[in-house]
Design a protein that fits this description.
The chain is of the alpha+beta class. Helix content is about 35%, strand content about 15%. Helix 2 links the parallel strand 1 and strand 2.
Length: about 80
C-alpha cells in the first residue's frame, strides 16, 4: 500500500532542491484498491511542484516481470 506519508516524503526530497521522479511503478493488487493506490501516488506527485514524472514498469500485466500478478495499468488483453 501507499504509505500515508508518501506526499510528505516526496515534498521532503523536493525541499532539498532536487527534482523527484517516480520510476518503474507497479502496484500489486486488484480492483478499486489498486486503482486507489495508483491514484494516491499520482495525486502525491501532482501536489509536489518538483515531482517531474511517473513512469510505470510497463503497460500490460503480461509485460511485467511480475506477470503472475496484476501489477500494471492494463491486463494482458489491454483492458
Amino acid at each position: 500500500p501507499v504509505p500515508s506519508n508518501y506526499h510528505t516524503t516526496l515534498q521532503n526530497f523536493a525541499d532539498l532542491g532536487v527534482d523527484v521522479q517516480i520510476t518503474e511503478l507497479d502496484i500489486e493488487g486488484s480492483g478499486s484498491s489498486q486503482a486507489e493506490q495508483y491514484q494516491g501516488v499520482t495525486q502525491a506527485c501532482l501536489a509536489v511542484a518538483r515531482c517531474t514524472g511517473i513512469t510505470v514498469w510497463g503497460i500490460r500485466d503480461t509485460d511485467s516481470w511480475r506477470a503472475s500478478g496484476t501489477p500494471l495499468l492494463f491486463d494482458g488483453s489491454g483492458n
